[in-house]
Amino acid sequence: MALLAFSHATIRISAVFYFIRLFGSESTIRLPILARATPRLFWQQRALLTCMTMSATSVGLKFDSQIPSDATTTILVGRKQTLLSAPGEALPTVLPQSLWAPLVGKASNPGDMGGSASTLIATSDGPAATVVAAVLPEPCSRHNSPFRPHAMSALVASPANEAAAACDHASIVVVLDDAAHAGGAACAIARAFPLYSRKKSSTAKKGGVTVSFFTKEGPLPAEQYPALRTAADGVRLAARLVDMPAEELTTTAFVAEAAAVTKRLQDAGHKIISEVISGEALRDGGYGGLWNVGKAAEEPPALVVLSYVPENPAKTVCLVGKGIVYDTGGLGLKSKEGMCGMKADCGGAAALLAAFEAAVASGLGGDALHVCLCLAENAIGPAAFRHDDIICFLSGKTCEINNTDAEGRLVLSDGVAHASHRPPKLPGVKTQPDLIIDMATLTGAQLVATGKRHAAIVTNDEQVEIASVAAGKLSGDLVHPLPYCPEFFRKEFKSQVADMKNSVKDRSNAQSSCAANFIHENLNEEFSGSWLHVDMAGPAFVDDRATGFGVAFVLALLGVAPFKP
């Protein structure tokens, strides 16, 4: 990996790369030497190692066309009529046919979340088997996904996790109305089994869960399962990163996670080009947004770029993710209540890193794909950037800071400027990307505008907007468009001493669209491709748990398996 940081940060990041390459076996790591050299780094990475050890004892999720014969709990999920017409091979062999219709009827619930019912079946040669009918709700409006992913995750989570906690083997059988919904259903189920936990009980051995898919016509073909597994693994990876506290997922640790993704893809035979610009190298390279946001933290800010470039790519897509590993608000300090949960402010970068891995692993055809991770901790301290400071982005534009808690747009501005730079900074790009997608937990106003289930999107291309809404419904990662109208929003950032301020003057004027426009202003002036902004502040984190939102959406938008037309 080419490191472009010319400061102490380079040495520290290199040490982590060495650490990560070896952490498959803790005994092979020279822990005392690392501990003596950089004690804080040692303990942070020790915590990361502990987390990964715990992840190994979380629920094992398997996707297989063969329903396991040793499952002690079987959960069948689908719409009422679909379950009633499910092929016989989808039903547990221990279940008398006469009990199935009454069980489905008992589970049917007219509410918005569906319902479930279970029964115990005596077996001749082992413990009683539990059969659960999980009936999805019938109501489904035009802005929802037809396979009801919100209900699917909730209905399978409790019985499957209970079985796994008891070291039993659970089977989830999904009966679909349409085989095209398999990818979204796989990702919805993956959300029910988070990887991260630091509970004492999380070190206990867990049972496994096997997921199988059917339509009314029969089982889903076995050749579709690898892509389903890859997408689901991506959702769980993104959720794990967002669930990790900042004491473990520092910027340095996030760089190491990106290095691990690179290694996995390279080991699988994919050619990945990687670059890290870190610490003072960001300042010296003109990345004023990233540098100023992250310069007060103990771990340095970084721009991580991973690239997959086949020969003569048909098109080029660049993903740009906000990766604020913790957001205190900076000197504009958040309240006690407002700061809790700010570990989730890296949700955009987490989703796009996982989406990059899944897309390359499943196959992009002849397209090139890049991901830029904008990593920083918005900390307080003597070196923190201040209100009234004027910073300069890679785009060359200057910004007067009037809100240090509006930091996400600052790091993303450098990210999109890097992605659209002339001459190109991305490897293999001759002129410019065809599409730049930035993704972030950017504004609280997004929840007001589109709610907790739909991310907000802003784009300069109507066809991308239409495709994004369709991709949201297909993947289950729902999105809804906001206005793209720069001429209405530029005035909100007017400054007397710089090209712009970083926070709006009028908070009643489409704040989320304004924030998106701020990022758009830092695209290269010659950029003529499509740009899509995704603000997923609401759907990234639900009930104190990360959802892995964004992974499935990107795969569906790119047309990658399991969402390939």
From TrEMBL:
GO terms for molecular function: manganese ion binding; metalloaminopeptidase activity. Residues 403-410 form the Cytosol aminopeptidase domain. Belongs to the peptidase M17 family. It holds the Pfam family Peptidase_M17. Keywords: Aminopeptidase, Hydrolase, Protease. GO terms for biological process: proteolysis. One of its GO terms (cellular component) is cytoplasm. This is Cytosol aminopeptidase domain-containing protein.
